[in-house]
Amino acid sequence: MLNASLAQAVPVTFGGTLIGNPPCDITGDDDPVSVEFGEVGISRIDGVNYAQPFTLTVTCGADLGNNVALFMGYDGMNADFDDRALQTSRQGLGILLSYDGTVIKPDNGDIPVTMSSHGVMTLPLVPVPVKDSNPALVLFEGPFTATGTVEIRYP
Fold first, then answer.
1. pLDDT value at position 3?
2. In the chain, what are the domain boundaries?
3. 25 backbone dihedrals φ, ψ, rounded to 5°
4. Tally of CB atoms within 10 A around 2
5. DSSP string across 70-125
6. pLDDT tens digits for range 38-97
């Protein structure tokens, strides 16, 4: 049982600063990031050949901390023949983008990533060309391009 005559009071003050989610910077080897596939043999496009790995660095600042759950996705037009692929300037040709073996669908494929190393993480990404399996569609020789935007989102 407590003796009321021995009780003492100690004032306690709590404080801090509320901030929104810190902004993150995404950088690659060049800005904007450009991935060059070089010469791609039409008959050898199979979703494996011609993969061109690259790495993005995401910096959100040390205030974010470690083991913070984030989501990665990217915006762009889906290919008509495969909603997992990014549309290119050539009908019947698309680009699959994967992270850690998981394909990221344009405009619908947020995948979880974990921030580590005091607000800095690296994202190894692998784009690879794919083609429409419709035998009636013929790919013709010539240059192709595709554009998407990689995003990091807070839950």
1. 59
2. 21-36+45-134+148-153
3. -105, 135
4. 6
5. EEEEEE-PEETTEEEEEE-SSTTEEEEEEETTEEPPBTT--EEEEE-TTTEEEEEE
6. 999 999 999 999 999 998 888 887 777 777 888 888 899 999 999 999 999 999 999 999
Task: Please name the amino acid found at residue 23.
Answer: P
Sheet holding 68-75, edge to edge: 111-115, 68-75, 149-153
Average per-residue pLDDT in the chain?
Answer: 86
DSSP codes joined into one string, 37-70? --S--GGG-SSSTT---EEEEEE--GGG-SSEEE
**Residue at 7: amino acid letter:** A
21-36+45-134+148-153: CATH number: 2.60.40.1090
With contact defined as beta carbons under 8 Å apart, do 74 and 151 qualify?
Answer: yes
Sign of the C-alpha dihedral, residues 62, 63, 67, 69? Answer: negative
Question: And the tokens for 82?
Answer: 């495969």
0.85 exceeded by pTM: no
CA–CA distance, 127 with 37 (Å, rounded to integer): 9
Contacts of 16 (CB under 8 A, 6+ apart): none
Instruction: Evaluate the CA torsion angle 145, 50, 75, 79 in order and state its sign.
Output: positive
In angstroms, the CA 128 to CA 94 distance is 8
